[in-house]
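Need tokens for this chain, all 66 residues.
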Amino acid sequence: MAEVAYRSKVRIERVKGPLRKAWLPVEKEPILFSTHGPVAVHYKAVPGTFEEHATTLDYVVAAAAG
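Here are the structure tokens for all 66 residues:
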């Protein structure tokens, strides 16, 4: 088996409810994840309770499409 070429070091902090901060390599500021639109409705989030941000699913889709 080949040696590992890269290991991503990421730290996630749950702020409150669906709101999370993620510290990603090279980024100077943490990235915020939360819910929005139909995802928030699915999880029964009360509108206006949390700031809307992209979901982790949004980032996965963007990465796969890249």
